[in-house]
Design a protein that fits this description.
single chain; 291 residues; mainly alpha; Four Helix Bundle (Hemerythrin (Met), subunit A); two-stranded antiparallel ribbon; 2 strands; globular
Length: 291
């Protein structure tokens, strides 16, 4: 006989829920979407100075309007430096910075130039001021798009909006020194440059149009964002910086105007020289291929 084994059924055991509760920790990319207070405060200061400049230009107070924009430039430099040094660069800060730049370096300079120069030109003056604001907005929008791609660019593509506004601001500060009330500040001037200021005043509408197109152009401009003064540099660079500081102290308005004007022209000269050398190399390659 075959003995069958008895199967003893075990009582059903309660299933213990071993699933772990997952706590979502924000990643670094998600944190970059937050708001960082210190850089954002300087960015808001940039926009505030720009709005105060617009109010001063409407009232005809062009010297205070220009100095307000100098304050906006300082805030724009500081907020970027702080964000890079503390690694607090964020998408929110980038968008807020663009909005601030549109107010301080687009609308405010255009209003200043319209009240000072363009208002006598009728509809043409309005069109030039609107062109400047639109090109500033396009320049900032393109900058944001290039920044979101993650590509590293050694140069700016197109004239930066602060540099374009800097040409206008420094021109106003230098030109106003020709007026008797301007000499109350006791700033020294460069005689040769001051003699040319009336000429600059007459051609300023053309200058504004050129600055507008340079902002939306593909002309490369040198970037100073990653410039670290803590690294070892040449003695020639130190000498140049010392000379610039001395000139700014002695001739503040005139020197700032010269610096911004040279920067605006430099990119255009580099761009033209590159085109010239490319065309010059093209026939040489064609001759080598024929041989």
């Amino acid at each position: 006989m075959k003995i069958r084994r008895a199967h003893i059924r075990k009582p059903p055991q309660k299933r213990v829920n071993t699933r772990r509760v997952q706590i979502k920790v924000p990643t670094r990319e998600e944190l970059k979407k937050g708001i960082y207070i210190i850089p954002s405060m300087f960015t808001c200061g940039n926009m505030t100075f720009g709005f105060l400049s617009v109010l001063a230009s409407i009232r005809g107070h062009f010297i205070p309007a220009a100095w307000f924009l100098i304050g906006a430039l300082a805030c724009d430099i500081i907020d970027g430096r702080i964000a890079r040094m503390t690694n607090t660069t964020s998408m929110f800060g980038m968008e807020l910075d663009s909005l601030s730049d549109l107010v301080s370096f687009g609308i405010a300079p255009a209003m200043m130039m319209y009240m000072l120069v363009l208002n006598t030109m009728g509809k043409i003056g309005i069109a030039i001021a609107v062109l400047y604001v639109l090109c500033c907005a396009l320049r900032l929008a393109r900058f944001n798009v290039l920044a979101h791609t993650g590509e590293v660019h050694k140069h700016f593509v197109g004239l930066p909006t602060p540099a374009s506004a800097g040409v206008i601001i420094s021109f106003v500060l230098s030109y106003q020194l020709l007026a008797p009330e301007g000499y109350n500040l006791n700033f020294k001037t460069i005689p040769v440059l001051m003699e040319l200021m009336p000429v600059f005043f007459r051609v300023m509408p053309i200058v504004i149009v050129v600055l507008s197109f340079l902002m939306v152009s593909n002309v490369p401009y040198m970037s100073f964002k990653k410039l670290k003064l803590s690294k070892v540099r040449t003695i020639e660079l130190l000498a140049v910086l010392i000379v610039l500081v001395i000139l700014i102290v002695i001739f503040p308005q005139n020197t700032i105007f010269i610096i911004f004007a040279i920067y605006a022209i430099s990119g255009l000269l580099i761009y033209i020289s590159r085109i010239f050398f490319r065309r010059k190399k093209a026939p040489d390659k064609a001759e080598q291929n024929d041989m």
